[in-house]
Amino acid sequence: MKSPQETKVCVIGLGSMGFGMAESLLRDGFAVTGVDVNADAMERFAALGGAVAADPATGAQDAELVIAVVVNADQTEQVLFGPGGAVATMSEGGVVMSCATMAPDLARVFAKRCAAAGVTYLDTPISGGAQRAASGELTIMGSGPAAAFARIRPALDSVAAKVYELGEEAGTGAAFKVVNQLLAGVHIAAACEAITFAKAMDLDLEKVYEVITASAGNSWMFENRVPHVLEGDYSPRSAVDIFTKDLGIVADIGRDLKFPTPIAGTALQMFVMTAAAGMGRDDDASVARMLANIAGLDLPDAAPASEG
């Protein structure tokens, strides 16, 4: 890869994760173009000094690296290969990083389609949340040709603290991410159940958070998501609908393998119930609100905006 200033990168999807990745690359001197259907996200990125484009094909024109940070496999296919897709216009021999959680078989299909178009597909699901995306400290579970990883190493170092190269074939990274999402979804559901259970026993929820985060029952998700409940802030950092999708993938793979996933299945139903209650696009900590509604409990309301 050339120097950052000479390397054109297109980030497709300026949501909570994609925006942070684009911001990290821009901060490290890369020539970054952002693409998103949300005009506000585009304006925010332009205000930082990044370029913006109306569609993936325009944004990826002559780009050496395209990073697709969209919600699912369908959106990945659309932004890469659909009308106005990025693959048709990016630099010959360029690299695609595909970050959405998807079934491994689909990642393999996308790799073949990219190869036929003369570009290299890297299966690079991400983990770490919006804060780590913004600070360039994500974890990447990657698979694909080692030479392609080496080529884009400066960009990987910009967006991630840990990059795992898990094999030469697309699909392996996706499979690792599915395992991660099984655990993440279960841990979010458990954290929401635990803090709502504490409310049912009329405990001081702030003190519950303090004690549990210093105890064996803590998890990364408890520590990260329960503050959303304590603040009554359900603006979506990661939406409920993400986990209805991801745990649905877990269930589908388990069924195909004839492997039981009873705990993940229960967590999936908790997210589905939350979505059915009208909170699918809210923060995934809304599972706590769903449980509180069933039990007739009042969780904290959002803190009022400060004045002055």
UniProtKB/TrEMBL annotation:
PROSITE patterns according to UniProt: 3_HYDROXYISOBUT_DH
InterPro entries tied to this protein: 3-OH-isobutyrate_DH-rel_CS, 6-PGluconate_DH-like_C_sf, 6PGD_dom2, 6PGDH_NADP-bd, HIBADH-like_NADP-bd, HIBADH-related, L-lactate/malate_DH, LtnD
Catalytic activity, as annotated: L-threonate + NAD(+) = 2-dehydro-L-erythronate + NADH + H(+)
Pfam families: NAD_binding_11 (PF14833), NAD_binding_2 (PF03446)
Main enzyme class: oxidoreductase
Limits of the 6-phosphogluconate dehydrogenase NADP-binding domain: 8-167
Keywords assigned: Carbohydrate metabolism, NAD, NADP, Oxidoreductase
Coiled-coil ranges (or none): none
Keyword Iron: no
Domain 3-hydroxyisobutyrate dehydrogenase-like NAD-binding: 171-291
EC number(s) on file: 1.1.1.411
NCBIfam families xref list: ThreonDh (NF043037)
Family (UniProt): Belongs to the HIBADH-related family. L-threonate dehydrogenase subfamily.
Protein task: Catalyzes oxidation of L-threonate to 2-oxo-tetronate. Can use either NAD(+) or NADP(+) as cosubstrate, with a preference for NAD(+).
Protein name, entry field: L-threonate dehydrogenase
Native organism: Thioclava nitratireducens
